[in-house]
Structure formats: C-alpha cells, structure tokens
Amino acid sequence: MDDDTEDWAAQLEANRDEKDRFFAEHRQSPIPPEERDDFDGLSYFDPDPDYRVEATVTVHETPESVDLETSDDRTVRYLHVATLSFDLDGESRELHAFRQAADESRTLFVPFRDKTTGQQSYDGGRYMELEPDRDLSTGDEITLDFNLAYSPFCAYSDTFSCPLPPESNWLETAVTAGERID
C-alpha cells in the first residue's frame, strides 16, 4: 500500500471509530437507548481502494422533481440535480444525485442498492453524501468513495423514516464496501 492509500485507510478507520462513539453515546443516536450498553460498533466491509472511483458529473440545469418512497410508506420530494457516470467492476455505471428542494447546500444525496442489499447490507439500501467544495459543472470529476456508504437510521430503529433508493440507482453489481450488516 502506498502512503496515500495508507493515509486514506487510516482516515476511514478514524471516521468509523468516531461514528461508533456517536452511535454508542450520543442522545441523537439511532440506536434505541435501552440497546446502547450492548452496542459494540457497526459492521463494515474492509477498506478497499478499488471502490473509490472518479465519476463524471452531468448537472441538470432544470432538475426533475422526483418523489422517493420511504421506509414507512410515505413519499418525500427530491430534485434530481446531477447524474454521476463512473466505471466499477469493469463496467460503466450511473447513479442519480439528489437534493431536497429547500436545501441550498452543495451536498449531493446518493441513495443506492446493489447486489449486497438485503444480504450483506441493509435491505433498504445505503446512502452516500457528497460534499463538493464548489458548484459543479457538467464534465467535472468527483470522487465516489463507496467505502463511505452507510445504512440510514431506519436500519437501526423504526422511529425513523428514510428515503429508499429509486430503481434508477440499483447497481447490478455487489459493492462490498462501506457499512454492512452482521
């Protein structure tokens, strides 16, 4: 492993430790209070730099409004603001990136399912949030790090309502990176 990869893996592990502390101790943890004493950390796939890919951005100047179904049978409205095109496992793939209509930030919400969904990862899919440091333009490159993929809070408690990935974000490959279930 080269120095950059070692630094990346060390930072990833530090982020995971910090998240485990939040889940175990914070009052806003999705782990029910009565279960926190027994919580000994989330499960993750091993860090894998092959799941850290560059994606080409297509910005949608007039974003389409999309109603995403939720884990509690409601819908929530998002805007399809960008399409991310990338290669993974030797194939060209796409994911749609969303933002809630009232959200003025640059954060891109990327919910997805893959061949691990319901088997090695949460059956409602996983999420990634991308935080570009500037407004993106069509043709820009952005790093998609599936090692940062996480399960939504509704994976840990039914008190949360979580958007489900739309069919357009169902990847026909196993993404063995990020959070997993035991």
UniProtKB/TrEMBL annotation:
Region (Disordered): 13-45
Composition skew (Basic and acidic residues), residue ranges: 14-28
The organism's place on the tree of life at top rank: Archaea
InterPro entries: DUF1684 (IPR012467)
Family annotation (PANTHER family): DUF1684 DOMAIN-CONTAINING PROTEIN (PTHR41913:SF1)
Official protein name in the record: DUF1684 domain-containing protein
Protein species of origin: Haloarcula japonica (strain ATCC 49778 / DSM 6131 / JCM 7785 / NBRC 101032 / NCIMB 13157 / TR-1)
